[in-house]
Description:
This protein is an alpha+beta fold. The protein has helices at about 5-20, 40-50, and strands at about 25-30, 60-65, 65-70, 75-80, 95, 100-109. The longest helix has 16 residues, at about 5-20.
Amino acid sequence: MHELGITENIVAIVRDHARGQPxxxxxxxxxxxxxxxxxxLHFCFDACTRGTELENARLEIIDVPGARTCRxxxxxxxxxxxxxxxxxxxxxxxxxxxxxxxxxxxxxx
Length: 109
């Protein structure tokens, strides 16, 4: 489960920025194409925050839809999975959104 390592990194980033202050909420953007389970992230978050200034913080996950642009026709389309062709039939596409995973914000008590 790679979500454990991802969650450990999220907690480390937030702890670094919180500088010892209690954190009540963490918002994370997860792209649909990032291959990360939101359910597993919630489970790992509870485990990784025990005994830290993030204990009892609420993890808010913001779902970011995927998108790709066709290099042949220029059309941008939604992408909920990879790989997939453009509606024009071309496989020459560039993923433009939905692969990211980032800490968007945190709330300090």
